[in-house]
């Protein structure tokens, strides 16, 4: 198989398909990215980091099922605690790769997914 760096280089070259949103090659590109980053379980952190821009693009995919798959993957890359997620969304995550879309909804969803109906969201003692 391909080494991590070879996979990352391949994905970076394929990012030209981002300009073809909504077409067959674009959808195939996103599926390939998803398969590469999510297939080994757990995902290879080095590859996930190197191709972050590519899989973040999947968060704005027009196909709802694919978008949900990317969000589920994204959520798995983010710490589970409320404060850690808040810090990640506000201070750590680089949203540039999807900056031309309404990225804030993804940050809010990450935080709200921590909420449980039977517990208050308050974090302090």
What do these coordinates show?
There is one protein chain. The protein has 125 residues and is mainly α. It has one domain. The chain contains seven helices and no strands. It has helices at residues 4-14, 24-38, 45-50, 52-57, 64-77, 82-92, 104-112. Helix 2 packs parallel to helix 5 (64-77) and helix 6 packs antiparallel against helix 7. The longest helix has 15 residues, at 24-38. The protein is globular. It starts with a helix and ends in a 13-residue tail after the last helix. The model has no long low-confidence stretch (mean pLDDT 82). Pfam families: Tra1_ring (PF20206). This is ERAP1-like C-terminal domain-containing protein. InterPro entries: Tra1_ring.
Structural class: mainly alpha
**Low-confidence segments, ≥5 residues, pLDDT <50?**
none
Order of helices and strands: HHHHHHH
Number-wise, the strands total 0
The fraction of residues assigned to DSSP E strands is under 5%
Global shape: globular
Share of helical residues: 55-70%
* Overall pLDDT metric: 82
Contiguous helical run count: 7
Instruction: Tell me about the largest β-sheet.
Output: none
What is the distance, rounded to the nearest whole angstrom, between the alpha carbons of the first and last residues? 51 Å
Number of domain units: 1
Structural topology:
Blueprint: H1 4-14, H2 24-38, H3 45-50, H4 52-57, H5 64-77, H6 82-92, H7 104-112
Helix pairs in contact: 2-5, 6-7
InterPro entries: Tra1_ring
Pfam family, one: Tra1_ring
Protein name: ERAP1-like C-terminal domain-containing protein
